[in-house]
Amino acid sequence: MKDKVILITGGSKGIGYGIAEILVGEGAKVAITSRSQKAADQAAEALKLESNPNVIGIESDVTDMNSEEAAVKKTVEAFGSLDVLIANAGVGHFANIKDMTEKHWHQTIDTNLTGVFNSVKAAVNEIIKSKGYIITIASLAGTNFFSQGSAYNASKFGLVGFTQAIMLDLRQDGVKVSTIMPGSVATYFNGNEPSPEDDWKIQPEDIGKLVLDLLTMNPRTLPSKVEVRPSMPPSK
Questions:
Q1: What is the pLDDT of residues 118-128, one digit of tens each?
Q2: What end-to-end distance do the CA atoms of the chain give, in Å?
Q3: Residues of the domain holding 223
């Protein structure tokens, strides 16, 4: 991973930060994005190691194509290329369809699905140049539907399908594409405050180690869709 250039959307906290932490520790050059420049800068400073200061924070909104194109441009200007895109940014709004608002529907789809399209479209030419890797962070909600999950399920089912389709689009260009589908992760997602009660859940750094495994796997092998879940959830 040393000197590989990696762009992580939504990298200032949660899963994105956990992935960045692992990859920075392996010597990668990492750009993380957030909708807040302050949050991106604070996370970047926290991630920097004496042995690897190559971390930058970028303000970017995945729902805006121009913003994603600017994030890719800043990454390439800072580090010279782009080897890996990790499309991680996401939101969740959960409600019975009788109560789901149009605003929350669009926020969910625009971030979790169209936002990934924007990130991939902005980065794809640079990724083709480097014969790199695209990883999307989906969810087990992309294959398992549940009550009050209409918007979230729709976004993640769509994301899984989108990722598998572009995997076929790009494989002859030498680009690898995978989607990771986590179950319960101990993050700040949907207003959660991580605590010792979340110790049974997947931890963000666990997803980081999984990403590292994908990126360092023999190039002849592609795990195109990876489901990952807590090994011992509380019994009901």
A1: 999 999 999 99
A2: 41
A3: 5-228
